[in-house]
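Project standup — Tuesday

K.O.: blocked on the structure for the chain from last sprint. Re-posting the sequence here as requested.
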Amino acid sequence: MRKLLLLLCGTVLSLCSCSPGEESASRETVSLTLVSFEESRALTEQVNLFNETHEGYRIDVQIYEQDDVDKDDRIERLQREIAAGRGPDLINYGSRYASNYCLGHYTENLLNYLPEDWQFIYFSNILKSFFVDEGLYAIPVGFSLRTFAGRRDMLGNRERWSIQELIRIYMEREEDIILYPGEKKVDVFGTILSNNMESFIEWEKGECSFDSEEFRDILAFSNTFPDMLRITEDYSPKTLFAEGKTLLYPVYISGIYDICGAGRILATDEVVYVGFPVSEGYGTVIQPSSLVLAISANSRHKDISWEFISQFLASGYQDEKLNRCLPLRRDTMEHMLEEAGNMDYTVDADGNQIPIVKLKISFEGEESIEVYHMEEEEKKQLLRMIDTASLNDAIDYTLYNIVLEEAQSYFAGDKTLDEVVDTIQRRASLFVAERM
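H.V.: unblocked you, prediction finished:
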């Protein structure tokens, strides 16, 4: 009887317990791989937060170092891995993201993961500027804006213009007024091209239009400037802007107070933002932040991968963690602008209240311009600029360098305008078609 009881107890214990292998499997951590094309402290912090708060999951970051290959080669290597059924779960394309990286749908359409009311939560036009084939295959954590500002008495009330209008206004200016400090052939061409190159390309169709009249006008206009800058000892960009001796002031907005610079530098309340010359829409250019995230089409953990990306889109991160870029969330922006109208103070050793400088605009060797708060009109202008922006700066720098290289043979007088346009169109068409 005693032997029978012992046998029964042993059977029950064997049924209720797991083998060592089964117990290990039940506790096994699922590892997700995140490929990043550059180092990022912000990315590392959020990976660590994810790993601490998601039991059973872990993200491992793999940096695709540049070494002796350029970024395009690394992108193509990643695409080959995904096409072969391998590849990571998550991707950070980084600050040099180009929209053609998402051709071929190597990544998931993130519109399927955004909430239904995403167009009210985020600046919808900003996200739409990153669409490829009507889908969002990579999402920036934040964005910046680039535009041109000028005096109303020089540029009129316009909020946009074409290259033909820019040329006409420049040609009709007073003789001692320059386009902007730093004007020379390559700089003028590179500045205009780098901020509207996408308008000459249709990646989805594998077509480009560098043989258009608009592009020819940009080349010809750029060629009217000097090859080299002629700068004297008393040269002062700050003075040129303040005295109305420049037609344009280049504006880069990566923080809300950056909108405050133009009026103070141009020394006028009558400031207009005309953007870069484009044939359609507004010429305010959207530049993605240094974090542009995607989910691989091959990932077996798409939902948990989206949870990681969602950390960057949550109000907590957008309110407190963004660095050197504007928020995607509309409510975050509205809260920031509400606070920006206030003067903030600190107290010195003598108990005196000292206003806190929100923005300092510096010119080498000259006194800085300090901003302490935003005016209501500046807030409205920033929101208007964000809401009308549609031109994406996510350009392919390999193609950009091809165009710039060929243009310089025209600036040097080695080729005619027609010859250079034909060469650029031929090389660019081949490059774009290969990425279909």
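K.O.: great, moving the ticket to review. DSSP finds 18 helices and 17 strands in the chain. The longest strand covers residues 142-151.
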